[in-house]
Design brief:
Elements lengths: L28 E9 L9 H12 L1 E10 H15 L4 E9 L1 H4 L8 E8 L4 E7 L9 E9 L2 E9 L6 H15 L5 E6 L10 H6 L1 E2 L28 E6 L3 E7 L8 E6 L3
Parallel strand pairs: 1-2, 7-8
Antiparallel strand pairs: 1-12, 2-4, 3-4, 5-6, 6-7, 8-10, 9-10, 11-12
Helix pairs in contact: 1-2
């Protein structure tokens, strides 16, 4: 197969396509949603192509990306379309412009934050920065799109770093207040918190995680040990919260392209 040449290809050589994804080229799984923290800085030669390959392997209808640079996401979208025949729309939830994070000339540093890729059109985009981001600006991105052929409000967020529980508590309050306005909602993201962390209480009150064995519990009780880990350091930080929707299956897939695993869920058509 002839592959697209681009800046991610070492020495101008086309990267290998790797194992084919499941399903025919150009098809997404219409009731599948996913979340993935791309890890920044974790870039390198061929990383954008590798990330596209991982997404194409599972071909979700919607995927929320965190720690996403606009330029990287554009390159990933190009590979998805030109190599795998998967056409995604994109909305960005940029929270800062940072040369160290995303490169670019000093007068035009790259945008950094969240992104949502959807095979269906997206409307009613809202990008919100939390009043307190902690050690780095953080926020959420929300859109309305189709999953399983039905409209749903989709949120994508990245909360403050792991040792900033008090900051995350304020962020969850902001996010949960908006999620509560919708009867059907999917909340994707890296919450930087284990399931029994107290700051996640408002989310658990509104929605359930797609992992059927994972529920909030008191720290030290052993509950939560059944949660599938989503990071290289054996913690669950990544969630697909569902409100008014039930999950059918969920999978967590480690990847060499990030310190977070790609998490996807197939949903029931309730």
């Amino acid at each position: 197969m002839a592959l697209l040449l681009g800046p991610s290809a070492p020495g101008g050589a086309a990267p290998a396509a790797g194992p084919p994804r499941f399903g025919a080229a150009g098809e997404v799984v219409p009731d599948r949603v996913a979340t993935w923290n791309l890890c920044n800085p974790c870039g390198g030669i061929g990383h954008d192509f590798g990330r596209a390959k991982e997404i194409a392997r599972y071909a979700p209808q919607v995927i929320g990306l965190q720690e996403a640079c606009v330029r990287d996401v554009e390159q990933i979208r190009t590979y998805l379309e030109e190599v795998y025949g998967l056409v995604y729309r994109v909305e960005y939830g940029t929270v800062l412009r940072n040369w160290n994070r995303c490169g670019g000339p000093p007068w035009r540093p790259g945008g950094f934050g969240q992104a949502i890729l959807s095979a269906a059109p997206m409307t009613d985009r809202v990008n919100v920065e939390y009043p307190d981001g902690g050690s780095e600006d953080r926020g959420y991105l929300a859109v309305t799109t189709l999953v399983g052929g039905r409209p749903v409000r989709v949120f994508n967020t990245h909360l403050a770093e792991r040792r900033q529980g008090g900051v995350r508590a304020g962020q969850v309050e902001v996010l949960a207040a908006e999620v509560a306005r919708h009867d059907r909602a999917i909340v994707l993201g890296d919450f930087n918190a284990v399931p029994y962390a107290p700051e996640l209480g408002p989310m658990w009150a509104l929605a359930l995680d797609t992992d059927p064995g994972c529920r909030p519990a008191t720290a030290g009780t052993g509950a939560g040990d059944v949660c599938t880990v989503t990071t290289d350091w054996n913690s669950k930080f990544d969630y697909v919260f569902l409100r008014g929707i039930t999950p059918r299956t969920h999978r967590v897939r480690p990847s060499p392209y990030s310190d977070h695993h790609l998490l996807y869920s197939d949903l029931n058509r309730d």
